[in-house]
Amino acid sequence: MTQTTLLRGGWIITMVPGSEPARGDVLIRDSLIAAVGRVDPPPGAEVVDATDRIILPGLVDSHRHLWQSSLRILACDWTLGQYFARMRGQFGGLFRPEDIFAGTLLGAVEALDAGITTVVDWSHNLNTPAHADAAWAALQEGGGRAVFAYGATNDQALRNDVSAHTRDVARLRTEVAGDAAARVTLAMAVRGPEFTTIDNCEADWGLARELGVPMTVHVGGGLRGAQGGIRALSERGLLGPDTTYVHCNMLSDAELELIASSGGRASVSPEVEANMGHGPPATARLRSRGIPTGISADVCTNVGGDLFGAMRVAIALQRGADHAAALTRGETLEVVSMTARDVLAMATVDGARAIGLEDRIGTLEVGKQADLLLLRTDLPNLAPVNDPIGAVVHAAGTHNVDTVYVAGRLVKRAGQFVDLDLPSVLRRAESSRDYLLAAATDR
């Protein structure tokens, strides 16, 4: 039986290039967007009053380590070096499959709560196949759209290991992840030349292409990111449009040109990068070369798990750097170098492009998946609405996220989850946290 819902009378931000926010309606039919604009209610449709709401595409987090969510904010004062020494060296090997499940589920739920309907789960603590199965099961239970990026074991991530990526990813591809149109799909989180040998990179890239799954790779983060890794990949003929390059801070302009010419994509994590010391933000350098660039929260051990904060940090860092450069030249900028629409695109349409899902999500268009959120504007931080896009980027917070749909399925309404036992999710995460902290203390 067809399920039809009409969201009526809201401020609509479609994020279709060239479009402007306007009052109107969005019709959802089953899992798809059926109409956008002025729509008469079809017979039998549920009509939702969106008068005091902004309706926009579900946000896209293009790179997040969900497995760490139970250790929330533990690393808030850690540098990048301390993170590797402590999170990987102290905690990573302690994670049981049930800890991976608890952290991944909590992170997936946290994302939905913040209006993030799609997340790339960069899962790089998969010490056994059971760990991978636990992460996959948590994404299924979480209810959001996800790309499960099957990553390394803790030992592989801890040092420059020479072992190849486990072929267990092939098992998962065959058993449960064969449908590229499913809500949860598969990718490979490959280590790249900053974490392993170039011969090993060639093998890992070959495995991903053999399986027909996209890749995501950390590059350009900190001093190890300034050693020509992209050039090395290019010399082996490995760069391509099936790869998302994460961070990119310390890459040279020539390396960014290699990514652009190969059709590659990118993801930045401005809040984490600034806090931990990855290097100057690469946002403008990526975007100026036409590289589709998404945005992410990265690790909730260090920052909050919403994209409102990430967007604000991204735009402030870029504008600040550009203002400072102009003042150093004895000039002032006549217009801002990055607009609110630019950074919202990174969290929606460009984020979808950055992970290869632009045909399905990222904009409110007929035929696309009905992944969207409604933000309350009848609260002091958004009322009155004068610039809907500016309101989302510069003023909105998770408390404004009123309603969330994923593939047309209602997962949050009136600020509350639908069909989710949140206390159970929290108890599981707290139990895992208690175990991990105690086990780390005993080592």
Explain how this protein is built.
The protein is of the alpha/beta class and 443 residues long. 36% of the residues lie in helices and 21% in strands. It has 15 helices and 17 strands. Helix 2 (97-113) packs across helix 15 (422-442) and helix 12 (340-346) crosses helix 14 (388-394). The mean pLDDT is 96.
What is the approximate shape?
A: globular
Count the beta strands. 17
Radius of gyration: 21 Å
Q: Structural class from helices and strands?
A: alpha/beta
Helix run count:
15
Residue runs with pLDDT of under 50 for 5 or more positions = none
Portion of residues in beta strands equals 15-25%
Mean pLDDT: 96
User: What is the CA-CA span between the terminal residues?
Assistant: 56 Å
Portion of residues within helices: 25-40%
Corresponding CATH architecture of the largest domain: Alpha-Beta Barrel
Task: Count structural domains.
Answer: 2
The largest pleated sheet is described as: 9 strands, mixed
CATH homologous superfamily grouping of the largest domain = Metal-dependent hydrolases
